[in-house]
Amino acid sequence: MTDRCVTHATFTLERLYPAPAARVFAEWADPKAKARWFSTPDADHELDFRVGGREVNRSRPDSGPSLTFEALYRDIVPDERIVYTSVLYAGDALATASLTTVEFCPADGGTRLVLTEQGTFLDGREESSWREIGTGDWLDALGAELGAGGYG
After folding, report:
1. What Cα–Cα distance (Å) separates residue 8 from each residue in 40, 72, 128?
2. 70, 80, 96, 131 - which has most CB atoms within 10 Å?
3. Is the pTM of this model over 0.85?
């Protein structure tokens, strides 16, 4: 018998980027641009950025099971907001299901990005702290892509 558990967690991350909201938003909307900061060179990344569109990122780490991230875009307001639901599989096992909101807010000389994720973490396959660290890492990679280094 397998031990089953469910953990619920919410986190919010903020980054300041010295680029206009339209530029930051475009990094999420363009498949090639998003693959540069969100994915890894050895992963398969697909992006259909529209309401009802899907994003998939499949990676194969050197150790451990393959990881598959799948998102469905629920709401997109250009240059202002993105809302998506997502799941993460470790191998064939569902690890996480979540709702994420990304807001693009004008700030002095650029954009303040606010990302809030509400997650359900299943059976110890992923922990909320791991997700928060990983999400922060790719927001920092977005900052590097924008030439900002992402801070905040």
Report:
1. 28, 20, 8
2. 96
3. yes
